[in-house]
Specification:
Subcellular location: Periplasm
Oligomer: single chain
Radius of gyration: 22 Å
Helix content: 40-55%
CATH class of the largest domain: Alpha Beta
CATH architecture of the largest domain: 3-Layer(aba) Sandwich
Function: Required for disulfide bond formation in some periplasmic proteins. Acts by transferring its disulfide bond to other proteins and is reduced in the process.
Strand content: 15-25%
Structural class: alpha+beta
Protein name: Thiol:disulfide interchange protein
Number of helices: 7
Keywords: Disulfide bond, Periplasm, Redox-active center, Signal
Organism: Pelistega ratti
CATH topology of the largest domain: Glutaredoxin
Low-confidence stretches: 1-18
Length: 231
Amino acid sequence: MKLIKKLTLFSLFLGSTVMAAETDTIKKNLEKAFDINIESVEPTKYPNIYEVVTDETILYTDKAGTYILAGNLIDTQSKVDLTETKIKQLSLKDIEALPLNKAIKRVNGNGERKIITFEDPNCHYCKRLYGELDKIDNASIYTFIVPILGRDSVKKANNIWCSSDPNVTWANWMHKGETPESAKECDAPIPDALAVSRKFQMRGTPMILLGNGERFNGFVNASMIEEALKK
């Protein structure tokens, strides 16, 4: 029995050592080939497919890192999108580290629930979302302004942040349609917002993150957000 126990422990140790060597090889090869920052490498439950989490996205590769696949990995039996599941797990962890001082903030009620949005000032659906978020009580809403729709979006984003009261200027534009006045240049946190959007793999605006890790890629109404907040 002692021999069997020792052999079992040795096989577990050997297996973990081999796995560590494989993940190190993957990390080394991919970082060298693509100049990317890899945060973790883990084997999936599928043969010779490894999950690679970078500071901007999730990729898949083989045990030698000889190729990469970019896209969502979906289990055909369970119909579960494993990539989205992983993104939610990472989102829940990363939400706590968000630089919320780089976001526009408004508070409804006691503000106990957390909602984070990523919006372009010229995004039609973002303007619709503004009204929907007004319907959600007891929530702190943080908006990262991500001007991805062209030069005018960048101009508006800067004018909003560099105004005397960015929160009011943002509200007046998104809710009332009052064009932000030209403002002197300032240290607007737009690069920070764009970096955060890449971290959370934003595909377009609006994107919505909730404090419980739930997320929406695109416009949804207040009732859908309320349901997600209950999870």
